[in-house]
Amino acid sequence: xxxxxxxxxxxxxxxxxxxxxxxxxxxxxxxxxxxxxxxxxxxxxxxxxxxxxxxxxxxxxxxxxxxxxxxxxxxxxxxxxxxxxxxxxxxxxxxxxxxxxxxxxxxxxxxxxxxxxxxxxxxxxxxxxxxxxxxxxxxxxxxxxxxxxxxxxxxxxxxxxxxxxxxxxx
Length: 170
Prior knowledge:
Elements lengths: L2 H9 L4 E2 H11 L8 H13 L3 E6 L5 E5 L1 H12 L11 H11 L5 H25 L3 H33 L1
Antiparallel strand pairs: 1-3, 2-3
Helix pairs in contact: 1-2, 2-3, 5-6, 6-7
């Protein structure tokens, strides 16, 4: 998800000021994607430049608020109706690391896999604890569930890599 679309989604519920958007964005993503307030205002500036948001005056405390425009709503609708393609996600550094371990004669692939497996298990435990103590509602739960499922899938993939590596060396 881009910050751009996340902010548009939040603004679709009503006018917001920058810090409010930052807090709600982090809460909606289960605090798994922290935002720098500078990122928020830079993104709002670009969204305004592109006609997707408009300044909406100031609130009672004098904070500048932003509202989504019709063009912003159309962009948000387009984003929600477009599936996320695998090629749109960042490169998988772990897959690249293991591929490079296979290509390197001096690297113990089993050790690389073990190191990653231990880190992934720690992350899975942290995520499970976070889910148990989560109070952020459905949005936070869905994000945490996704991260848990990804960690579980990574563990299965590491098991597969280990098995294939043993077959190759047998």
